[in-house]
Amino acid sequence: MDSFQDLIATNSSEKTANGDKHFMSHMPTSLAAIHVVGTFYQVGYEVGKKFRNEIEQFYKGTSLFDDLLPFYQTSNGRQIYEEYLDITKDLYPQYVREMEGIADGSGRPFHEVFLIHIEPEISTMLRTGQGIQSTSAQCTTVMLNYIDNDGRQQTVLAHNEDAIVAMPKTIPYMVHTRITTDAESPSIAEEWSAYCYPGHIAGNCFSLNIHGLATTTNRLFPNNVQRGKIPYYIAARALLSCDSIDAAEEMIRTDMHRVALGMSVSLAFSAVADSEQIVANIEIAPTDTNAPYGGKNYHVKRIPVASRKEEGFYFHCNRYDRIPDVAEGEEVSSDHRKRRIEALPVPSSVDDVLAIIGDTAGDERFPVYRSGKEPDYLFTAATGVFDMMASTFSIYTNNPANGPGPVMKIPMAKRTVKKIL
User: Fold this and answer.
1) Residue 19 confidence (pLDDT)
2) Rounded Cα gap, residues 260 and 118, in angstroms
3) What three-state secondary structure class fits 222?
């Protein structure tokens, strides 16, 4: 298996005496990354091995030990765990192999790794019954697809990744990978770059694949969590494999009627002409039937290039906006962020989008760019910005509106997509 040297975007990391990288804990200007080629298992193993310490540190800050493992140790909890594992093995066995690789590489039991990947479902069950707060991330996504009177086009997808305050801002990492189907006679199954939480498979945050498909995901909080259906993290990982927005919609239509929980997926696609650019947002709701919410459990909003900026602008937080009659849990920050963005001027440029995604002025208690200060309980760990006209995928670990700039910038070629590795 080929393994590539780690990439550190800037020189602010230091070396300890034993050669390990040590990162500044508060205002990071670096981002760890790994370049790796191999099978699903091999890629998971290399990531788990490389980021073993980060995984241990991250898992300690989650609900794994206080909620998930005690739940797993009950007969009902173990049955629910097995139901989620069974459907994942049935539909997406390759991602089970990837998680097995993470477990083996990091030296953790597989059941801990898989429990982390069904945390949204379990925490919703516990929250609904006992008032326990989920420790999953919540996010803000802003999209613009606009051409002005002078013919200047702005097509951008920007996403704030908000994380639990117990997580040091320095321990997420980028994974750049080419996944092959077989070690003996390999053909490329997937290739992508993704921002990842330690010990998680990719797809949950912001990602770019070899086909030119940019994806971001937002947690939604419906009360109607379903047993034995596709977990949120697995659904997000599967969508990362799609080769177009159309393919993502088709996967949702054919497979995602069996999702266990809710999600919002935002998409942009670089491999088209400028005039054909589309950004899209797809809401997905769980259901115990095949025809809920007036006929289906998802809603696709496509935004083609618009000559009026109001028509080319859209954003999403952690509430359902377009699927009616979904009973949801309380999400105060999302309500505040939505009201604040609605009060801001409609953007007409990339800088305007960054001003929105980095806004802290309008609502000090629950800002768009989050600080983790009470009464809020999450902070913005990173921002991913896909600028389709500049053909760049930029990652910021400080405020994109007024910080020092991106710590990593990945080129995206139009129409003919370059290899990521």
Assistant:
1) 32
2) 10
3) strand
Residue 228 falls inside a structural domain: yes
CA 253/CA 52 separation, integer angstroms? 37
pLDDT of residue 293: 52
Q: How many angstroms separate the CA atoms of 138 and 158, rounded?
A: 14
The Cα 111–Cα 46 span in angstroms is 19
- On whether residue 391 sits in a domain, the answer given is yes
pLDDT one-digit tens code per residue, 60-102 = 988 899 999 999 999 999 999 999 999 999 999 999 999 999 9
**Are 327 and 352 spatial neighbours (Cβ–Cβ below 8 Å)?**
no
CA distance 18 to 287: 52
Q: Residue 188: what pLDDT?
A: 76
- Beta-strand relationship, 173-180 and 378-387: unpaired
Cα 321 from Cα 13, distance rounded (Å) = 41
CA distance 229 to 404: 43
- pLDDT value, residue 363: 83
Which residue segment(s) compose the domain that 37 sits in? 3-411
Q: What is the pLDDT of residue 151?
A: 92
Query: DSSP states of 138-203 as a string?
Result: EEEEEEEEEE-TTS-EEEEEEEEEEEETTS-TT--EEEEEEEES-SSS--EEEEEEEEE-TT--SS
Rg (CA), the chain: 20
Token pair of 243 as six digits: 């080769």
Tell me: cis bond preceding 120? Omega within 30 of 0 counts. no
Task: Identify the CATH number of the domain in which residue 126 sits.
Answer: 3.60.60.10
Strand partners, 254: none
In angstroms, the Cα distances linking 202 to 62, 173, 371 are: 18, 11, 24
Count how many domains the chain has. 1
* pLDDT on residue 6: 34
Please state, in angstroms and rounded to a whole number, the distance separating the CA atoms of residues 234 and 156.
Answer: 26
The reported pTM is 0.89
Residue 120 located in a structural domain: yes
370 with 379: CB under 8 angstroms? yes
| Residue 12: inside a domain | yes
Query: pLDDT below 70 — which residues of the chain?
Result: 1-29, 128-137, 183-186, 288-295, 413-421
